Amino acid sequence: MSDTPTRPSTSVEDYVKVVYDLQERGTGPVTISGMAERLSVSNSSVSGMLRKLGELGLVEHRRYGTVSLTEAGTKAALSVLRRHRLLETYLVAALGYSWDEVHDEAEILEHVVSDKFVDRIASYLGDPVVDPHGDPIPTSEGHIVERPSVLLSDAEEGVEGVIVRVNDTDPHLLRYLADIEIGIGMSVRVVERQPFAGSLRIAVRPDHETPAHDRSLGLVAAEALWIAPDGS
């Protein structure tokens, strides 16, 4: 008989992970419609699953209200996020995947690998604290190293910082950012906000030796990038 605790079902893990991710990224209260859009399912499907998650003690949700995780739900979400983000890191570091390829692979693998296997990956990689997209990797105890950051789309003109995180849910956007040479660790300065054009003009410097180059960045891309402002 196995001593391994019973793991939640794939659908339960997917739902608590989405609730946590929507909370973590600070895009506002988590709602049924927001979850439905993220999961590409109907509002009624989300409502039905939330009832089940409530019965399991993983979420708190009142009809027509917002959704939040309980302590047990947060623990379950952090467990699956640890697996997901370490798998993404391993796929890039050891198997040569690009950052736009790993999300879908990790979505499948996260539900089947053991915690022991994931802990071995963490040890092999030197216990990284962020994945290739800058998302924080929970420790096995459920702790996260947070770094102060703001969305690039919210940064005022003249603000400078380092790109520390990018939303990994759209591989097309990740490929676009790679094509225009914007990535994690690069320095960026907001040169001009162009609200009526729906874009920002930014100066990007890949490293200290390379001169900065100007880029016009649409708000969709700017809303997917987080920077750690200088001095934070």
Automatic annotation (TrEMBL):
Primary location recorded for the protein, binned into one broad class: cytoplasm
Gene3D superfamilies cross-referenced by the UniProt entry: 2.30.30.90, Iron dependent repressor, metal binding and dimerisation domain (1.10.60.10), Winged helix-like DNA-binding domain superfamily/Winged helix DNA-binding domain (1.10.10.10)
InterPro entries cross-referenced by the UniProt entry: DtxR_MntR_Metal-Reg, Fe-transptr_FeoA-like, Fe_dep_repressor, Fe_dep_repressor_sf, FeoA_core_dom, HTH_DTXR, Iron_dep_repressor, WH-like_DNA-bd_sf
Subcellular location field: Cytoplasm
Pfam families assigned: Fe_dep_repr_C, Fe_dep_repress, FeoA
Keywords tagged on the record: Activator, Cytoplasm, DNA-binding, Manganese, Repressor, Transcription, Transcription regulation
UniProt keyword Repressor, yes or no: yes
Residue span(s) of domain HTH dtxR-type: 1-70
The keyword Endoplasmic reticulum is assigned to this record: no
PANTHER family the UniProt entry points to: IRON (METAL) DEPENDENT REPRESSOR, DTXR FAMILY (PTHR33238), TRANSCRIPTIONAL REGULATOR MNTR (PTHR33238:SF11)
Oligomeric and partner information: Homodimer.
Family, per entry: Belongs to the DtxR/MntR family.
Protein name, per record: Manganese transport regulator
Native source organism of the sequence: Nocardiopsis lambiniae
